[in-house]
Hints:
Blueprint: H1 12-43, H2 47-52, H3 65-71, H4 74-106, H5 113-122, H6 130-139, H7 157-170, H8 173-181, H9 186-194, H10 199-215, H11 218-223, H12 232-249, H13 257-285, H14 287-300
Helix pairs in contact: 1-13, 3-13, 4-7, 4-10, 4-12, 10-13, 10-14, 12-13
Amino acid sequence: MTKNTKSVKETGFDKAFNYVIFFLAVIITLIVLYPIIYVVSASFSNPLEVSRGTVIFFPKSLTSMAYKTILDRKDLIVGYKNTIMITFFGTVINLFMTICCAYPLSRRNFAGKNVITMIVTFTMFFNAGMIPNYLLMKELHLLNSYWVLMLPGAISVYNMLIMRNFFKTSIPDELFDSAIIDGCNNLQTLLKIVIPLSKGIIAVMVIFYAVGHWNSYFDAMMYLSKKAKYPLQLVLRNILLETQTYISEGASAGYNSAEAALAYVSIQYAIIVVSSLPVLILYPLMQKHFVKGIMIGAVKG
């Protein structure tokens, strides 16, 4: 049997509408990309050109002085190593805890799941505060250790609820019933069925948790006093503070106060690039699964 197919002709209104949508998409893309382009250009430009406002898209008086100032710091490499380690192991702990909590709460035959969900959700609205948290970390002997940056935030209740809803609405109950018939226990069902079907939401969780660990500096500033364990963000913060101190004292490694102030402008932009580059590289690698996970969450709550 053959079916007659009719080609749909675009009217003038359809073409005009498509042109408008394309134009708006280009404008929105430029608006989103311009801050990134400007930051990169400013970091490679002469500080004087940046302060005059002549840098718009492309670098002016190309120079790598700001990056040389940052990369000459030995503590930067230490900070990178610490942050990579904290981000990796912290994200692994986050995923493990989130999946272990979300999976049982998503099962319809788990007794007491509503009560447990209410208790867990209750913690989203109340916090003991900074000083009690510090005293708790001190009593647990976690101060000046990497664990203090990973264990207190081992699970995000919000992310756990998102993953629970995904398990609950996106994986058919018939799959669980067939797994039981085939002799799978709960752990085997989780490892062989649930996780392979949840790559999208897991990618979303990896991005959320990893970016949180990568950008975090306040906890390190509060709980760590050993510079050898400082994460990258805290090292970069200290570079900015030291540069400001040099400016105020008028002795910035061969610059006078005015030159130091100008150099500080480029260092600021270079620090943004150095701290953001790994995350900008990570996202395209996981974009496929990330977009899929976001769309599933948008459609099914």
